[in-house]
Batch of 2 targets.
Target 1
Amino acid sequence: MKTTKTHASLKDIANYVGVSISLVSFVLNDKARQHRVSEEMVRKIKEAAEKLNYQPNIFAKSLREGKSHVIGVVLSDISNPFFSSIARCLEDEAEKYGYSVLFSSSDENRERSEKQIAHLINRGVDGLILVPCEKSQSTVRAVLETGKPLVLIDRYFPDVHTNYVCLNNREMSRLATSTILASGYSHPGTIAYDTTLQHMLDRRSGYRQAMEDAGKAAFVSESLIRECDLHQSISSAIDKLLAEGVDSLLFATNNIATESLMVIKNKGINVPGELGIIGFDGGSAFDLFQVPISYIQQPVALMAQKTVEIIMDEILVGQRLTHQIEVQGTLVIKESTKK
Amino acid sequence: MKTTKTHASLKDIANYVGVSISLVSFVLNDKARQHRVSEEMVRKIKEAAEKLNYQPNIFAKSLREGKSHVIGVVLSDISNPFFSSIARCLEDEAEKYGYSVLFSSSDENRERSEKQIAHLINRGVDGLILVPCEKSQSTVRAVLETGKPLVLIDRYFPDVHTNYVCLNNREMSRLATSTILASGYSHPGTIAYDTTLQHMLDRRSGYRQAMEDAGKAAFVSESLIRECDLHQSISSAIDKLLAEGVDSLLFATNNIATESLMVIKNKGINVPGELGIIGFDGGSAFDLFQVPISYIQQPVALMAQKTVEIIMDEILVGQRLTHQIEVQGTLVIKESTKK
DNA sequence: TTGGAATATTAAAACGATTTAGCTATATTC
DNA sequence: GAATATAGCTAAATCGTTTTAATATTCCAA
């Protein structure tokens, strides 16, 4: 017959064996030697723990240590393939340290993200991993002030001194653009988000850099779009760019790429003949297009690994060096850029 | 100057105002009236709490109440679009109750999922939402025995009496198949996973039902594949089905569909002319194919809502009725089935 | 003037684990 | 034989809440 009592506690074991709670605690925390517990007692207590199926109460432990063994993560939207793959990798990495991960989706909304961060901190997370949204410098600074370990991922603020892990966005964008040029497209354009977020600025500036390097500074054709009504905006952005004589496009994110490809397909534009294309982030979707799409690949697993490494260092060791890591992307060339 | 002390406690407020801890607790938990705390005292305490920026310590609270206000979720793989969209909806629903969600990806591996479940229970989650993997009836039963609120989602076991929320798989599959037939395809086949999981059996049996109803029981062409080496298996599965004279296909999951479309594209097969197609679950990917793909749409948000509703009922009210919910899918017809 | 309500507040136990300081014996040293 | 180590164990505080039972004060009726 099962009682309502959920689990055996140290006390239960202590009573069962007929010793004090302290002794049981010592033994089960591998401090038996340190506290000179006799061999026989160790055996007895371990047996009892086994028999009573002892599981330490995590609430009590957390209360005592002031640690939850949970990391909080706020990202844009976990249903976005790029972020869900990051999520998966973060989960796997954290597990290696015995840590769990609590996710929140901010939808790029600053207020929402602030609430979520506050909520996570109240939840007692031991550290925070953030994909910060636009103009959230003050939010990030506020987190820094709490002293909670913090790592930004995918994005960073040049004017906020924090840990971060992100792609070498500028360089990858430059490389992609110069690759397009080298493939024989003379007028590449780009579509990016209309945001002040640094990773986006970097992706745009990489494009411009390549154009300058090619002596084409005069022909820089960028379309910036807001995230709302994405489909609508993309459609008119593409119209505009084509009217300007663009013969190839670099898409700054996977969402932009997906929407754009839809529009391009509907317009019946031929890729790569009429239009060359490079996207950010791969994904099976891009291989289903009329022709496989070239793309800039982000080493998501590595990014997650570095991120968790940094945060665990701070949590466990109390390390306080600032790590700012730029990981290298890979340009994956497929059919969409072969004129 | 900031002290290392993280946060103000009830004690700090009590000292500040010069009253007992109990009083502060009453006031801050809105039990002032019930405990006849004077108006003035309520004001003073609330002010002090505000001033000291009081945040209740969740560990202490959890230890006391035996509740964590966290729900654990074990699903196949959070980086799979279907599950990440479920994840997102679960997150949103749970938030309405002030609950957070802890995700784990089992990779359809039973042992892995068992560890994760144990880990989540140790973490003190108040309930579990599971996408159970094959042959994990005993695991599910074990969870039931702990008394933890439990809801299965997407899948269920006919021989285990649990809460679950899933699609009317059989009916949707039947409808999809009969729609294919009605569109003029005479020899539909299906590709599904080689598993004993009920949702997959249902999807297959729906197909067979439709074939029977159409008097075509004789021509039932199913290819079952294992999840490993998905791409390879799919390729040969399609070869086999085509050799059998299949002129249209129903894919039992989004992963199967994605892989299959890739193969079909590479083989240069014309859709819908040579081959009609219906998939499970939509996704922007399917719209990038040569022709938009018809698909069975699952009401993911509704499923998540029902799931969380059931589990919160058990957690908060202690309700112990068993809810077994089948939600209705929608057949979305696009070009891929228009012969 | 004594007893009983009603009001306003507090003390203390409990949740379960960790850890410091302390208490017995017995063993060792000079 | 007295002083001191040492081995083996326990008591009790602590983390921050919640909640029950108790206390103290006032007020009113009998």
Target 2
Amino acid sequence: MPWNLDSDRPIFLQIIEKIQTDIVAGIYHPGDKLPSVRELAQAAAVNPNTMQKALSELERTGLVYSQRTSGRFITEDTKMIQKLKSELAREVITEFLEHMQKLGFEKQEAIELMEQTIRGETK
Amino acid sequence: MPWNLDSDRPIFLQIIEKIQTDIVAGIYHPGDKLPSVRELAQAAAVNPNTMQKALSELERTGLVYSQRTSGRFITEDTKMIQKLKSELAREVITEFLEHMQKLGFEKQEAIELMEQTIRGETK
DNA sequence: ATTACTGTACTAACTAAATAATACAATAAA
DNA sequence: TTTATTGTATTATTTAGTTAGTACAGTAAT
């Protein structure tokens, strides 16, 4: 599972989004134990401090919790996860429509162009 | 016309995208004279150096050109503008589908959820 | 008890982006 | 000719993000 971090945006933000996404997509399951800060940092090829910063933020929002010395775990609150999934999807959709509108495409045009693009890819 | 710059990404990149977008959306027209570096910087509330950096990059790609002392102008190459519009639209579409896929939605699901979201907004 | 692993905290150094403050050459307008 | 405006260039400073290195306290396993 590659981390695919780019340098155009703060890395700790990209890490937060990556882990959030993996949770709502079901790659991490409720109650799962996360690798340690040091392991995650190595896997993502970033400094442990950067990983720690991202994890602290995920903890602040309640998506993960830490058990002082035994490790860090995904929340077991499935409703929270489901709600987050809806929120993130809505954000992505809204962002898409705004972008397309700024380029000069109305909502229906945007959808049509997308369907056309998909057909073009799979043919 | 607000600039809406956020601090999550390099400002000069956001400026580049903003001006690109305004050109392909027809807010700026081919041959139009742009405001001076200093005026643009003031309008966007950034340092002139930052604006200059963004404009230099736009110039490097050929989208604008500068006439040494009389100012900066939008390219008159309408084909280039049209091509850029298609490219940007394709990027936005691809990015959208990738994001949704990472959240666990297949292409068709993504489209359906988007249509559903639109109906929910306009009702 | 000792060992190894956990999260956490702290300080220093480095880098890229952004700001600040000028300066200069070219030209259109006065 | 003078003035104002243009793009452009240069140097210094500040700030946020990142890295580097180290340290400490708690706990499960040995």
